[in-house]
Structures are given as C-alpha cells and as structure tokens.
Specification:
Elements (H helix, E strand, L loop, with lengths): L2 H28 L3 H14 L4 H14 L3 H14 L4 H13 L3 H14 L4 H14 L2 H14 L4 H13 L3 H14 L4 H14 L1
Helix pairs in contact: 1-2, 2-3, 3-4, 4-5, 5-6, 6-7, 7-8, 8-9, 9-10, 10-11
C-alpha cells in the first residue's frame, strides 16, 4: 500500500473518530450536561479543527449551558472563520451582546445577518428591540415596520409597536396597532388590556 493511501485511510479514520465524539457530545447536550458535551467536542476539535458545528456548539455549551459569554465568544468567532455566513452563529453572538448590554455590538451582528439574508424578519425584530433598549425610538419603529413588511401577521411585532406608540402618547396609532393584534389573533388578554388602557388614557 502506498504512503498516500495509508495517509488517506488514517485521515478518514481520524475524521470518523472526530464525528463520533461530536455525536456523543450532542447526547450530553440533550441531557443538559454542558461539561460532558464540552469534553467530547474538545476531542472532536483536536482530531478535526475544521469541524464548524463543534466550534459553534462549544460556544453554545459555554453560553447557554454555563452562562459564560466570554468563554463562548472565541468558539463562535472560530466557527465564523470557517463559515463567515453562519447565520445561527451571528444570531447567537448578537443576542449575547444584547443580553449583556452591549447594544452597539449586537446591532453590528444583526446587520451582518441582514447583509446575508435581507428578508430575515427576526433580525429586523431583534434590531428593533435593541434600538428600543437604547432608547432610539424612531429606529426601533422603522425596524419593526420593516419586519412587518416581511411577515405581516407577526402578532408580537404589532404588539411592540402598540406599546411603543402608547409610551410616546401617540394614541391613535397605538390603538390601530393594538386592534391589528386582536384582528390577527382575537382574544389575547394582554392586547385587550392594552387596548382598554390606551382608550382610557386617550379620553
């Protein structure tokens, strides 16, 4: 057997072993055992440093499983080097920055997603929520409206617009958005309560 053939066989065996460890890690993850998952995926990455999903899932294990964003970030960044258009990775990084209060960084990642998939209504919603947290009302409203152009029946987006316009004392628009929520999904108590509140404050 030629040396090249031997090397190819060894490489295939190594990749197969890496995949076995990756699959074992998924089992640990499903059982909410972040440490077990991390141990398996470390072995995966030692055998196959180009395993995109292992880098991505290691980040998830540290952030979601262990609540450690600082440790998660380098793994997600490595995953993005392998696949710069990994939308799920960009989402997780954006959401983590938003949850830790770094709104400008969060917006950067949502914008990257929209460069890849401009019709991603969730990214428009995430951007709107982030602008809202920053107190940048007009940008938040514009992003929610953009999300509705893509997904007109998204109840949560109409509701967010109703809440924001009530806060801004723009009661006619707030009523319109609240009525839209109840038109799409009648009987939502929260929306009905908001509608009654808006009517009371408007009068």
């Amino acid at each position: 057997m030629k040396m090249t053939e031997k090397n190819n066989i060894k490489k295939k065996e190594k990749l197969a072993e890496a995949e076995d460890y990756y699959q074992k890690g998924l089992v640990y993850a499903q059982e909410s055992d972040a440490d077990g998952a991390i141990e398996c995926w470390q072995k995966t990455l030692k055998l196959n440093p180009d395993h995109f999903k292992a880098w991505y899932d290691m980040g998830n294990a540290y952030y979601i499983g262990k609540g450690n964003f600082k440790k998660a970030l380098p793994f997600w960044e490595k995953a993005l080097k392998i696949n710069p258009e990994g939308v799920d990775v960009l989402y997780n990084i954006g959401n983590a920055y938003r949850e830790t209060g770094d709104y400008d960084q969060a917006l950067e990642y949502y914008k990257k997603i929209l460069e890849i998939t401009p019709e991603d209504h969730e990214s428009w919603n995430n951007m709107a929520n982030t602008y809202n947290m920053k107190g940048e009302n007009e940008q938040a409203i514009q992003c929610w409206k953009k999300a509705l152009e893509i997904k007109p029946n998204k109840v949560e987006t109409w509701f967010n617009l109703a809440v924001k316009h009530r806060e801004l004392k723009k009661y006619d628009q707030a009523l319109e958005y609240c009525q839209k929520v109840l038109e799409i999904r009648p009987g939502i108590r929260e929306a009905q309560r908001l509608l009654d509140t808006i009517k009371r404050e408007k009068s």
